[in-house]
Amino acid sequence: MLFALAVIALHTVGRVIEVGLQIASVAYGALLDVFLLAVLTKKANQSGAIVGMLFGFGVELYLWGTHVPWTWWVMMGTIVTFAVGYAASLLMQEKSF
After folding, report:
1. Under 8 Å between Cβ of 83 and 40
2. Cβ neighbours of residue 19 under 8 Å, at least 6 residues apart?
3. Per-residue pLDDT of the chain (97 residues; tens, 9 = 90+)
C-alpha cells in the first residue's frame, strides 16, 4: 500500500524527500497513537487499537488528497486514532467473571 502511494506521489510531486516524508506521515500517526493508547490508558485493548488504527489510517489517506499540508497529517491521524481507539476499547471491553 505504501509503495503504491510512493509511485503515485512521485508522479505528482517529484521531490523524493518530500514524498518519503509524506508516506511516513501516513503511517506514523496511527503507530504513534497505538503507543500512546498503551502508555496513557489502562482501558485500551487490542481490538480498540486496531479499530482506531484503521480509522486513523483512513483519515490520513483522505488528507493525502486535500490541501492540508503533510506536516499536519501525523497530528490529525494521532488525534483521530486515539479518540476512536479509546472509544472502541470502552465499547469492546471484555467481561471478566
Report:
1. no
2. 6, 9, 10, 13
3. 767 766 766 666 667 777 777 778 777 877 888 888 989 998 889 999 999 999 988 888 888 888 888 888 888 888 999 999 999 999 988 654 4
Residue type, 45: N
Distance CA 6, CA 75 (A): 21
**Residues 9, 19: contact at Cβ < 8 Å?**
yes
Distance in angstroms (rounded) separating the CA atoms of residues 64 and 39: 28
Distance CA 61, CA 43 (A): 28
Say what angle helices 16-40 and 73-91 make with each other, to 10 degrees. Answer: 30
